[in-house]
Amino acid sequence: MKTVMITGCSSGFGLEIARYFLDRDWSVIATMRTPRDGILPPSDRLRILPLDVTDAASIAAAIEAAGPVDVLVNNAGIGWLNALEGTPMQVARELFETNTFGTMAMIQAILPQFRQRRSGIIVNVTSSVTLKPLLLLSAYTASKAAVNAFTESLALELAAFDLRAHLVLPGRAPDTSFATTARGRITGEGGFPEPYDDLVQAVVARFQQPDDAITTSLDVAEAVWRAATDANAPMRIPAGADAVALSPGA
Fold first, then answer.
1. pLDDT tens, 172-204?
2. Tens digit of pLDDT for each residue in 208-247?
3. What is the CA radius of gyration of the chain?
4. Annotated active-site residue in 13, 21, 140, 225
């Protein structure tokens, strides 16, 4: 039985990824900042662990408690939607601490066991916003694009030890809490700068339009499963119809 460790499992993509692997008889270590009972089906193959990817002690404790792992899925992340001028530098740092440095820290923590066994797969969940410039997403996109870049270089390092690294790039997913969470953080940080009102209204109107080309959490789970189980999977795997449409060669 193989084991997958997934970060950010309290909702959205992470929760669906955990369900998907459980349904396929994997042992699942679902991590979240504040563990919640009852959000995943009871199973003797499931463990829920506390994990804050911005805290070195929390990472070390989770890795020790997890034991041997076959696949690490870095899904934990935070969102932000605002003009750069309306983005406090503290917020920009928080984005990178969680989305970028948190991912790096998790990989550093798990690599020794992967390397010693010469077996292990890393799957980093980023975003299709890195494939096309979009309004009000400059800081968030930067934090995710950095993960894309370092993962592709990391994969070259890992190949020497028979290890793999992949990227999953989801599109816009209305069934997740990204937009709600991002708006909540903006409210707490003072809102949008007034000169950008027209741009903000245009973006909000676009979000409210019905769109058949979207991403579901299941799309993301299927893409992560492919990365974890298909030795011939590509480095970048788009997840969702909109992400596929943006991908080179689509």
1. 998 776 655 655 555 556 689 999 999 999 888
2. 777 778 999 999 999 999 999 999 999 999 999 999 999 9
3. 18
4. 140
Q: Closest Cα to residue 124, out of 94, 156, 155, 80?
A: 155
Q: How many residues does the chain have?
A: 250
**Cα separation, 215 vs 104, whole angstroms:** 26
Q: What are phi and psi of 66, to 5 degrees?
A: -70, -35
Q: Could you count the other beta carbons within 10 Å of the beta carbon of residue 58?
A: 17
Looking at residue 205, its pLDDT comes to 84
Measured between alpha carbons, how far is 163 from 120 in angstroms, rounded to an integer? Answer: 5
Decide: helix, strand or coil at residue 50: strand
140 is catalytic: yes
Retrieve residue 229's tokens: 């189980």
Per-residue DSSP letter, 130:
G
- Residues paired with 236 in a beta bridge: 167
Structural domains present in the chain: 3-241 (3.40.50.720)
Reduced to 3 states, what is the DSSP secondary structure of residue 106? helix
Nearest to 15 by CA among 244, 218, 227: 218
Looking up tokens 């292990």 gives 120
Cα–Cα distance for residue pair 30/38, rounded to 1 Å: 12
